[in-house]
Specification:
91 residues, alpha+beta, Alpha-Beta Plaits, 33% strand, globular
Length: 91
């Protein structure tokens, strides 16, 4: 399962978002997830991630990880929003 994640962060929320991201990415591998690519614009107000999970269940388990859930106040503080799109290799 490959995902494209587009995150928009208000300038005032970048610091809180970076803290949140550090926590969340640290548990990714424990759920058979891999950060394939991580990109951001110059201002740091948009990030683009490509993430792979072995199965959809792994992705669901990642979403329910207690450490990730405990970091949600940082996400809220950051004011970030995101869209997640499952993507596939082009033929």
């Amino acid at each position: 399962m490959k995902l494209f994640v587009h995150i928009t962060i208000p300038e005032s929320g970048i610091r809180a978002f970076r803290k949140y991201e550090s926590i969340v990415l640290s548990v990714l591998a424990e759920h058979n997830g891999t950060l394939v690519g991580q990109y951001r614009n110059n201002a740091g107000t948009e990030e683009f991630h490509i993430v792979e999970f072995t199965t959809a269940s792994d992705f669901d388990n990642f979403g329910q990880d207690p450490r990730r859930l405990a970091a949600n106040p940082l996400w809220d503080e950051s004011g970030a929003s995101s869209t997640i799109t499952e993507i596939f290799d082009a033929d």
